[in-house]
Design brief:
- With 110 residues, this protein is an all-alpha fold.
- It has one domain.
- It is built from three helices and no strands.
- α2 packs antiparallel against α3.
- The chain starts with a helix and ends in a 5-residue tail after the last helix.
Length: 110
């Protein structure tokens, strides 16, 4: 049983680190949106926020689905995985639009 407890501790630590990185991504996106009010920056912020929700759901679903069957649990994890992948796609598209279009329009500092 010790091995299971060790894995649970590592899973929890990893989850906390992931949530902190996602929060940093959201805060960074908020800073970018506050400096550059462009469509790319806003899409980037939306993707970061949705990604944070997906990561939080990944951390909370095992606690909520405590008594569910393994098939239900795996199906839920698959849906959350697709949701998280979609959110990263939205973030990436916003970042790409921001980098290609929006930064061209921004005034250059000497």
């Amino acid at each position: 049983m010790d091995n299971f407890d060790d894995l649970t501790i590592h899973f929890t630590i990893n989850g906390i680190i992931i949530v902190m990185f996602q929060l940093a991504m959201v805060v960074s996106s908020i800073i970018i949106v506050s400096k550059y009010r462009t469509i790319g920056a806003i899409i980037m912020l939306a993707g970061a926020c949705v990604s944070l929700l997906a990561v939080l759901a990944f951390q909370l679903v095992p606690l909520i689905m405590n008594h569910s069957s393994s098939n239900e649990f795996m199906a839920t994890q698959v849906v959350l995985s697709y949701f998280n992948t979609f959110s990263f796609f939205v973030f990436m598209m916003g970042f790409l639009i921001f980098a290609v279009n929006d930064l061209k329009k921004a005034p250059k500092k000497a």
